[in-house]
Amino acid sequence: MLSLLIIALAAGPPPLQGPPPALSVLPAGGGQSHVVDLCDLMANNGDLAGNYFCLRPDGGHISATTDGGVAMVLAATGSPVTLTRALCPNGPNCAVAATQQLDGGNRFATAAHGFAQDDFSAGCLVSFDDVPTTQVFLDHDNAGNEVFTMYLSSSAAFLGTRDGTAQTISNSAGTLVSRARHLVGFSFDYSGTGAVNSAIGYLDGVAGTEKTTMRPPLAATTSPTTISVRATSSLPAYGAYGNCFLTEALLTAGDWTALAGAALGELSGAFGETLTYTRASAAACEASDGTVATLPGGRPCVTRQGIQAEPSATFLALWPRDLSRAATWVPSNMTCTKTATGKDGAPNSASTCTATAGNGTAIQSITVASAARVTSLDVKRRTGTGNIDLTRNNGTAWATLSASNCFDSNGTGTAPNASTWVRCYVTSTLENPQIGIRLVTSGDAVDVDYFDDEAGAVPTSRCDNLGSTCTRAAPSATLTTPAVLSRTEGCASACLTPAFTGAAPASGVYLDAHGGSGYLLYVNGGEQSVQTYDGTNAPSVAVTYTTGVPVCVRSSWSATRNDLHAENLTTGAVGTSTAFTTFPALGATTRLGDASGGGSPALVRVSDVKLDSSPDGCR
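RESULT FIELD:
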């Protein structure tokens, strides 16, 4: 027996042990590698040279390197705050890491210094808060004539200048996403290693267009380098800094790629295999502790429950995190302020709503054709014990939030409380819903986050669409189908953690290697089962779907035995067999969580995926 593939993202009951896998796409325990502090990595790699500094996530700075560079001291102005934010992917479960919350008034700066050589590189591992205006995140000023300024424009373009001129460089290889973690930086080349007097910007390790018309370097300067504000104390940047560095070394494209991979995580296996992941938009990822991290397009959500699969969604509620906008969220006997620490751990990113009289409400009207839709919000009590109600029809009917319609981050039904966030939702079919919250008891107060409305029967991953509607694309996770995978003899298994309870809200494909003409593992909408489909027969086995609770399932096929069946590995149940000759032709790729072409995506997290050349394997 040859075990062909295993994606070992530990979830639920451990699978039965078989022979060692020939391929391992993700490390056991789930998640991806992550280096929280880049300073040590850069020092060990010799990336810190000459006059340099490297800010650590706890506000300290590195003071030694292996090549004898001179470390500059970073002094704090104001009171930078050390925060922890979820980083996803990060190790087995979107683990948290320290960051420095800076806003210009609270910042770091070096003493005045010059440059011992012309070439240099600079960058920051940072998540920016909402971007209302131009913000400077790294600056070296020479009496008002910048040696360089790295900044974020009001349109979220990532730019930089040299020598105070109008010359600018930018990164056109990607988009900065508010509150998502990015590695941004530039390499300035003045010695002729590349084009003389050139500079290249890098976003998450991907190079932008090289600028070859930069001004020559200034003579030695004696000015400070500032983090999170221009040296003239203007254009402050608001964000959480994990690292920020300046080095008189010319970092290459390979250096930036390696740093980004270490800082942001990589989908790679023990033997160098890669799992290809795409998503055309940003998305939110929730760790088991309930913390939400925003991920740019193309960065996967990987937790200990597996890799997230879900359909696309369009969210229609405006300002879902800011109920203080009275023109959108119309209040009655209720006051809302954007002063709460949100699900992402960021201060003043969510709303606190207080009933100023009994039955205080905040209502938003949405224009949309009649359809089955779901309204959801994250809520946490501040004061009081009165009922918290949710409506989709302007209060004609109110649903009281309880353990039956609210769930914690692990999927356990949990009533709103003062210690943990819970996500609550109601569904209905009607035209032009008017969604809102009601606090029945005067003086009660709650924190509210991600209050939104989307099509379907259960809410999908969150979206901060600010003042506009938001469409989140469906993700796609694929790997190359092993060449020795057989159409006539073999097996497939996976552990699935659903985002729903009871019957599947829609049909979804868990594992597909047949270009859409046959499925290794899938579910029909409205059923509590798992099927396998060879193009003719679709045997199934019963499963129990519970939000946040993994279930492990298996399919087995054998032309020799004339047998095709599905099994529930969690309960040991074996479904009824059907006759079997062969599966349809195998595709070049095997897809996790959706079918070829992106059709019928599942609403689950997928882990512990195995393919085997024997019908008795995959256990």
